[in-house]
Amino acid sequence: MRNTPVQLHVITRIVAFIILAFSVFLFFAGHNNPGGGFIGGLMSASALVLLYLSFDLKTIKRVIPFNYAKVIASGLLLAILTGIVGMFFGFPFLTQFFDYFPLPILGETELTTALPFDLGIYLVVVGFTLLVILTVAEDDN
Amino acid sequence: MNNLIILPILIPMLMGVILIFFKDSKTIQRVVSVISVGLMLLLSVYLSYIVYVDGIQTIELGDWPAPFGIVLVADLLSSSLVALSSLLALVCLFFAFQTFSAERERNYFHPFFLFLMVGVNGSFLTGDIFNLFVFFEVMLISSFILISMGSKKYQLRESLKYVIINTVSSMFFIIAIAYLYGVTGTLNMADLSVKISELEQTGVISVIAVVFLFVFGTKSAIFPLYYWLPHSYYAPPAAIAALFGGLLTKVGVYTLMRTYTLIFPHDPLVFQILLIVGGLTMFIGVLGAVSQFDFKRILAVHIVSQVGYMIMGIGIFTPLAIAGTFFFLAHNIIVKSALFLFAGVAEKITGTSHLKEMSGLLKTHPYFAWLFFIAAISLAGIPPLSGFFGKFALVVAGFEAGNYFVIAVSLATGVLTLFSMMKIFMTSFWGEVKFPDPQAKDKKVGKLLIPILPLVALTILLGVAAEPFMQFSLELAEQLMDPSEYINSVLKE
Questions:
Q1: In this complex, do B6 and A80 lie within 8 Å of one another by their Cβ atoms?
Q2: Which of B13, B60, B63 sits opposite A80 (nearest CB)?
Q3: For A124, nearest residue in chain B (alpha carbons)
Q4: Which residues form the NADH:quinone oxidoreductase/Mrp antiporter transmembrane domain (chain B) (predicted)?
């Protein structure tokens, strides 16, 4: 067995979570500030790629047993369905709605239908990035 | 506001996404595909009817008002093309069921087939030039996948060329859009039309128009830019080749029609270029077809020459010429795909697509032979089939406008087209029965022919009932030549 890069493993475990947390922040910041599903998704994907790089493919596949093609599909489905919802109330496709709700802990919060749409994009970006990188990586053997 | 317009885009997209989850089940894939394409066909016919009765329909996506948000616009041209492309998709889908291996269907054939239709329908319906680029990309990426699926060596080599040439032209597309936005500050096509007609006709606009000509010319395979087409359309199996041959270059022609009637109608230089290029395209295309001895290759090269006629029609730029262009476009979508599917049938029977290796198909498979004959002479433009009337309108329009030279070229092209179609018929259908595959004689192809029947019936119908269809085309051309109705319905002035 090869030498295990202990430092890399230890640092990756910490850093990956920092990146993931930041990507979640970016994702929620996205509606009226810089950020959003696309950037958040890329950031999350980079954290996952870091995991794949420092540990090997098999280990991570055991930990994250997702079929990324289906992640892309779910993301697309979520985004499209969010767009369709407005059509049932007589608005054009992709119309977005928002309002302010008092929520516990968070206080007065703006909830928008753009959020599930953004979540869809997030899933598509994460799924696509990892699918591409893993396909290229698996091509090696 | 009419949500009906989005449905021909939305249905295949939603269904395609759902089908990704059912990758391994052949039955579910087939059933869902047929339902969604069938639904698309019904809705698009209904949409055309509504547009015909009530005039141009628009929808502002996300409820953002017109020059700022993205609009979808269904006028006579776009709605009837959506209906035609849906019909073609249904035919190709049924043909694919008969000919495709199970493995191909498991490799996401159906989702990407549906995404291709999203791109095609979207390109027809959008009223925003950047959105047009997006739908073009959706269409191209799906076509990259469909064209390289199966991964034979030849196929991969040709699809690589296809990918590169299309990516380069997409880059120029973006550049052209950026120029246009820099000059006018808008991307909405109706708004562009207004802004550009208010501008003095400056050199910049001509430059942009020529860059657009390069972009759409590459996509629709006109004269110096067609070299990628014959090989890459030869590579994929018949059902996909038929869809590509029938639709993808025609989307390029549609965008040329749309941009030059709506955005750049004031530029005589571009129309001169279109006339010259159109003449060269059809003549050089048909020479290529005459020199070939391969069933599919002849048809693929013929696409180029047929596109030349449409380019010529846009170049002449009178209402009659535009009507003829549309009629010819519709005829070509139907007949060209039918011929590609017939080539697929011939290959299925004999195991080869080389003309000299097969002969005597008329004796062994008479129904197939005569159906092919109808489509072939329709392509060559023999009355009373549809090809004749499209060409006739174009020729009359050309004489009225005084473009005698290009008309002479188009008539010569017609003769050569007839010659190359008869070459196929004489070498492979006449003569003694001789096939590379000894069992070929007893192969039954009835099931394969059924999906093609509607296309053949339609070419006969378009020819026999040319009067009402030509009337419709003229109405459509009026609508295109006078963009005020389009502009008013989008900008609501």
A1: no
A2: B13
A3: B17
A4: 128-417
In a domain? residue A114: yes
Chain A stretch 79-108, residues whose beta carbon is closer than 8 A to a beta carbon of chain B = 80, 84, 87, 91-96
CA distances for B58 relative to B4, B145, B489, angstroms: 9, 32, 7
| Eight-class DSSP state of A31 | T
Total domains present in chain A: 1
Closest partner residue to A70 among B3, B21, B60, by Cβ?
B21
A vs B, Cβ pairs < 8 A, gives: 42
Nearest CB to A77 within list B6, B17, B63 = B17
Asked if B430 and B362 touch (Cβ cutoff 8 Å), the reply is yes
In a domain, A108, yes or no: yes
Could you give the ipTM of this predicted complex?
0.88
Closest CA to B141 of B175, B97, B111, B176: B111
Give the residue carrying structure tokens 């000509």.
Answer: B213
- CB of B43 closer than 8 Å to CB of B7: yes
Strand partners, B73: B58
Q: Is A1 inside any structural domain? A: no
Give domain status of residue A12, yes or no: yes
How far apart CA B225 and CA B219 sit, in angstroms, is: 9
Ranking A82-96, B179-193, B285-299 by mean pLDDT, the lowest is: A82-96
Provide the token pair at B14. 């939603």
Buried b / exposed e over A117-138, threshold 16 CB at 10 Å, is: bbbbbbbbbbbbbbbebbeeee
Of B233, B229, B205, nearest to B217 (Cα)?
Answer: B229
Percent of chain A with pLDDT over 70: 96
Distance CA B358, CA B349 (A): 10
Give start and end residues of each alpha helix (H) in chain A: 6-29, 37-54, 57-63, 68-88, 114-138
Read off the amino acid at residue B207. V
Residues of A in contact with B21 (CB under 8 A): 70, 73
Determine, for residues B62 and A69 on separate chains, whether the beta-carbon distance falls below 8 Å: no
Instruction: With CB atoms and an 8 Å threshold, state whether B23 touches A96.
Output: no
Give the Cα separation of B340 and A108 in Å (integer): 62
Residues of chain B contacting residue A70, judged by C-beta atoms under 8 Å apart: 20-21
For chain B, the domains span 267-485
Q: Which residue of A has its CA nearest to B13?
A: A80
Please give the full DSSP string across B35-58, using - where no structure is assigned. Answer: HHHHHHHHHHHHHHHHHHHH--EE
> B97-145 pLDDT, tens per residue?
888 877 777 788 999 999 999 999 999 999 999 999 999 999 999 999 9
Residue B185: Cβ-neighbour burial (10 angstroms; 0-12, 13-18, 19+) = exposed
B295-332, pLDDT tens digit by residue?
889 999 999 999 999 999 999 999 999 999 999 999 99
Domain containing A75: what range? 6-138
**Count, residues in chain A:** 141
Residue B356 has pLDDT above 70, yes or no: yes
